Amino acid sequence: MGADRIAFVQGASRGIGLELVRQLLETGAASRVIASCREPDRATKLQSIAAEHMPRLTTLAVDVSEEATIAEAATRVGQVTDKLHFILNVAGVLHGEGFGPEKRLSQVRPEVLKTVFEVNAFGPLIVAKHFSSFLRHDDRSIFASLSARVGSISDNRLGGWYAYRGSKAAQNMFTKTLSIELGHVARNTIVVGLHPGTVDTGLSEPFQGSVPKEKLFSTKQSVEHLLAVIDGLTPQDTGKVFAWDGSEIPP
Question: Quick one: which of 30, 42, 47, 107 could link to 7 by a disulfide (CB 3.0–4.6 Å)?
């Protein structure tokens, strides 16, 4: 398995986050994984993986819309290590109870904008605020956040989806800005956004009807692609956003 490489996965209770935890452990890409979600004690699939891989997997409670939980998680991590090699932000929201992607301007609601931006844009940034000190070491490390192609301003040809597009575009700007700052203090950290493609999860389920079968990935396929992209990243890639196939997504 090689050197002790520790991953922190934020948003690990289901979907891509859960599969990332599984594959990081099973492939040995990480010797230890710290997985967080809002209610880890109720995340039965995550607890099942934890039981199988004990003591290599530990879980923490984090709600990315509550900074205090992120700060507490960082304190807990600091009690067991001073070094992380992967920080992977997976939690995201596209729709929820009573709201979905806006098809037109008249559907924009401030409370939905706040909810979506809190999770998709602010969440990874506040994780960086409290966890970046764990990246200040000499080993290669990755800070990655799940982004989306619809967050590209230059690629926006259809309009709509104001909250989701805007939150992912903001996340991408935060990624770029963070890469500049960490480039001064954590020189071996590569900061990127990652677009997983359309994945067969609850987030994309209402919108899968128009997706060709060959372009709808299982979580296993998507994570295999993402880990391959991560494995191939170089310092010159920091601050950029990449799709599941390794192609760069323009701002």
Answer: 30
- Percent of the chain at pLDDT above 70? 94
- Token readout for 58 is 């530990």
pLDDT in tens, 12-36: 999 999 999 999 999 999 999 999 9
Query: Where does residue 116 fall: left (phi above 0), alpha (psi -120 to 50 degrees), or beta otherwise?
Result: alpha
**Interatomic CA distance for residues 147 and 250, integer angstroms:** 12
Beta strands in the chain (DSSP E): 6-10, 32-37, 57-61, 86-89, 141-146, 189-195, 198-199, 216-217, 241-243
Please, which residues have CB within 8 angstroms of residue 98's CB and are 6 or more apart in sequence? Answer: none
What's the pTM? 0.93
Neighbours of 82 (CB within 10 A): 11
Q: Which residue has the tokens 């993986």?
A: 49
Q: Where are the domains of the chain?
A: 6-243
Instruction: Supply the Cα-derived Rg of the chain in whole angstroms.
Output: 17
Q: Which fold has domain 6-243?
A: Rossmann fold (3.40.50)
The pLDDT tens digits for 104-143 are 999 999 999 999 999 999 999 999 999 999 999 999 999 9
